[in-house]
Specification:
With about 80 residues, this protein is mainly α. Helices cover about 75% and strands about 0% of the residues. The chain contains two helices and no strands. It is rod-shaped and about 65 Å long.
C-alpha cells in the first residue's frame, strides 16, 4: 500500500492548517466573507491529516506484529 497516492500529502495539508490558524489568530476582526471558505479548507485538510495518521498507524502496527512473529526466540 502506498502512503502517498497523489500530489496532496500530509505536509502540504498540515502547512495549510498552520497557515489558516495563523491567519485567524492574528486578525482582530475576521473577514466574515472569508471565514466559511477558510473553515471548509481547514476541515478538509484536518480530515486528510487525520486519515493519513490513521493509515500510517495501521501500517506500523502491522509491521510491528509481523516483526514479533518473525523475530527469533530470545530465550534460546
Amino acid at each position: 500500500m502506498s502512503i502517498t497516492t497523489d500530489n496532496n500529502n500530509y505536509s502540504e495539508h498540515y502547512a495549510r492548517l498552520e497557515h489558516i490558524a495563523n491567519q485567524l489568530g492574528r486578525q482582530e476582526a475576521v473577514d466574515i466573507d472569508q471565514l466559511l471558505p477558510m473553515v471548509d479548507e481547514a476541515l478538509a485538510s484536518y480530515q486528510f491529516c487525520k486519515d493519513r495518521i490513521d493509515a500510517v498507524e495501521k501500517l506500523l502496527e502491522a509491521k510491528l506484529q509481523a516483526g514479533k512473529t518473525s523475530a527469533p526466540n530470545a530465550e534460546a
